Amino acid sequence: MSSTVMTVAQIRAAERRAMETVSEAILMARAADAVAAEAEMMVADARGRVPGTRVAVLVGAGNNGGDALLAAARLQHRGCRVTAVLVASRSHEESRLEALDAGVTTVDAQDFPHVAQMAVERADLVIDGIVGLGSSPGLRSPADALVAAIGADTPVLAVDIPSGLDADSGTADATHVRADATVTFTALKACLVENPAAAQAGRIIVADVGVPRG
Fold it and tell me: Which of 168, 194, 198, 203 could serve as a FRET partner for 174 with CA atoms 20 to 30 Å apart?
């Protein structure tokens, strides 16, 4: 695992350089592959199998949510029963369509809060794709209630960073996701190596999606 730590500004600059030669769609697909691979291992460890396991994917409005939706599509193709819980008024459109084409069930948490909460409570694995690097610390409604509904024994996989943390800080004062594992992209972030935030991220997997670290 790379020990390089990058700030949000450095990551954004590196992504811009990468997209001079590689499309954003390809970078997101690589990120989704890494998330889906880790999720598959986690449900196999938790349930002893992959087909038939229930996965709830918490989806925010940004590219983190798009990565999570693409991972949802991959897990649905591999036999999981995936529900994408949309926690924002919008989502990454191309990723949402790919998830729907794969057979992923989607539910709008704002319009159907009880259905969304039930999907989270019944899940064998929860994937956190609520917010990403550029977000402010803390979680807003309905995300905060859905995170609170995650079962104590339900494994949680965070996409890039646990939502609610400040990527560039080790603080963990605001409401946030507590993950068992985090698939982060390109390089480590401060919140993944500095306590108390790092203690909320679980096992860290640094996925190389083709963004330069230099």
Answer: 203
Q: φ and ψ at 87, to 5 degrees?
A: -100, -5
Q: CA–CA separation, 159 vs 52, rounded Å?
A: 22
CA 187 to centroid of chain Cα atoms: 16
What is the predicted pLDDT for the residue at 120? 98
Q: What is the CATH number of the domain that holds 92?
A: 3.40.50.10260
Structure confidence by residue, pLDDT tens digits, 90-103: 999 999 999 999 99
Residue-number span of the structural domain to which 193 is assigned: 8-207
Q: What amino acid occupies position 119?
A: A
Give a yes or no: residue 201 inside a domain: yes
Question: How far is residue 199's CA from residue 180's CA, in Å, rounded to a whole number?
Answer: 10
Whats the size of the chain, residue-wise? 214
Catalogue the E-assigned strands of the chain. 54-59, 81-86, 105-108, 125-129, 156-159, 181-185, 203-207
- Provide the number of structural domains found in the chain: 1
